[in-house]
Amino acid sequence: MRTKILSGYEESSIAVNAVILTIKDGELLVYLNSREKEPYKNLSELPGGLLRKLESAEQTLSRKIKDIFGKKNVFLKQFYSFTKPNRDPRGRVVSIGFIALISPDKVANFDNFQRIGTLPKLAFDHKEIIEKALEYLKENLDNQIVKEFMPPYFPLNGLQTVHEIIGKKKLDNRNFRKKIISSGTIRKVTMIQKNVPHRPAVLYRFI
Amino acid sequence: MRTKILSGYEESSIAVNAVILTIKDGELLVYLNSREKEPYKNLSELPGGLLRKLESAEQTLSRKIKDIFGKKNVFLKQFYSFTKPNRDPRGRVVSIGFIALISPDKVANFDNFQRIGTLPKLAFDHKEIIEKALEYLKENLDNQIVKEFMPPYFPLNGLQTVHEIIGKKKLDNRNFRKKIISSGTIRKVTMIQKNVPHRPAVLYRFI
User: Taking 80 as the threshold, does the pLDDT of residue B192 lie above it?
Assistant: First the structure.
């Protein structure tokens, strides 16, 4: 039971929304659903939902992610909470934004994934949520976030491509190699590429 | 008016809490208030408060920060939202956590600042909020967050000290210099230290 101390303030519903990203054919893709109900009926939206009683945001999100991807382990990171008072026409709803990154080799079906570059009109402030997620990713490129997009072993140019797609700019090969190797986040492995039509590249893994 | 779509879910109050940090005499300090009311009367707590109608989290926080520091410009960064259902005994309250970093030369009064290493028992989950903030800072050391702790011009060893305090470990001078210079985030300035009892150091600024 709520005491008087907290009365006089507006009550709110709490939602989570997930920006689920993958990379395919050199493009960043985001997972969207089509809304079946008003408001914004038939527009695309990010997956998500409201927190139930006794649920933390992380628990709500795990439940939603399981609905979409089954039991697969998905990397989830809270990146920002969206609190503008009028972001939902139904009443005050705060949405806690999460980023989920999925390596394309773990995606069974790309039907709901759409290219970031050519998004349709979205429900609520979901366009803003996606933009903020991309900004967050870009700011955190030096961290191990990109790791989640990568297979366990990868050549350096594969990693560079992911950095280029997220950072939205071409990088200089030599500088990238120098910087990433000196960052101490990756390590060379004693394996080489197989079945490639060029000289096999040295493979790395994240430490 | 809230429609039926959102009924059946628990209503919540939304709060903000700020982890306001500064560095003094080689130690990380956090700003704490003493609670004047139950629950947790007389325990220390992070500054913060509930969102008013038509306020975003950022607006609530700016209001609170202005109460504490006057009109000073303070760097604020949302880092995590705390949503455990029972974190507040008065009812469901979600708290949106912000980090504020203040250079010690902008702090007029250190009375409310306490050393991170020797914190008293705190109200609510505020200890957890502080721990999460420190974890966030540590993960983001490579970003420009530390910039906010620094004066406009600084020698490299001053920057190294801040990294060491946040990262909680001694760093190797040569490696630190090499890494920070190659990161492209700082630039040498054509000024040298004055009035120091040793050979004046080269000064840098953030780009």
Answer: no
User: In sequence order, what DSSP letters do the residues of chain A get, joined into one string?
Assistant: ---GGGTTS--BEEEEEEEEEEEETTEEEEE-EE--SSSSTTSEE-SEEEPPTT--HHHHHHHHHHHHHTT---EEEEEEEE--TTSSTTS-EEEEEEEEE--GGG-S--TTEEEGGG---BSTTHHHHHHHHHHHHHHTTTTGGGGGGS-SSEEHHHHHHHHHHHHTS---HHHHHHHHHHTTSEEEEEEE--S-SSSPPEEEEE-
Nearest to B83 by CA among A80, A65, A54, A99: A54
Cβ within 8 Å, pair B81-A58: no
Instruction: Mention every residue, 6+ apart, whose C-beta is less than 8 A from residue A64.
Output: A16, A18, A47, A48, A49
> What are A55-89's pLDDT values in tens digits?
999 999 999 998 888 866 788 899 999 999 999 99
Over residues A97-122, the pLDDT tens digits come to: 999 988 888 888 999 999 999 999 99
Domains observed in chain B: 11-139 (3.90.79.10), 148-206 (1.10.10.10)
Specify whether the CB–CB gap between A21 and A28 falls below 8 A. yes
Residues of B with CB under 8 A from a CB of A: 1-3, 5-6, 9-14, 37, 50-58, 78, 80-81, 83-85, 90-91, 93-94, 96, 139-140, 142-143, 178-179, 182-183
Mean pLDDT of B27-47: 96
Contact B47, B33 (CB under 8 A): yes
If you average pLDDT over residues B142-169, what whole number do you get? Answer: 86
Q: Which residues of A touch B (CB under 8 A)?
A: 1-3, 5-6, 9-14, 37, 50-58, 78, 80-81, 83-85, 90-91, 93-94, 96, 139-140, 142-143, 178-179, 182
